[in-house]
Amino acid sequence: MRRLNVSAIIAASLIGSLAPSHHASSQSERSVSGGNPSHGAALVEQLGCGGCHTIPGIRGARGLVGPPLDNIADRMIIAGVLANTADNMVAWLRAPQSVVAGNAMPNMGLDGKDARDVAAYLYTLR
After folding, report:
1. Of 40, 90, 100, 109, which sits most exposed with the smallest number of CB within 10 A?
2. Whole-model pTM?
3. What domains, with CATH codes, occur in the chain?
4. Are the beta carbons of 84 and 17 closer than 8 angstroms?
């Protein structure tokens, strides 16, 4: 996984947001091919993600370690360094330590399918 320059991402996102078609294209980028949001929500609960994050729709998810995940689908950046696309979300969920070494998010051992399912759930949070 290649680390991205935060300033370049933010600049590109801001410039891209000026184009009228940006919103529509970013929405299609965020659709998670083959992802099952219901299974993703179950995984989020099973893995205990709410111990660190506040997550709408997840029982008892009131954690204060990581950022709240409400409106994650509408955010421009993931983990402070990645453009918010489906591919980047899946990569982050699969191996957060390879994206930003030493961050508080542990590698959860998600395979590609489970990461797509969790991403699909997260993209329902608007």
Report:
1. 109
2. 0.77
3. 6-122 (1.10.760.10)
4. no
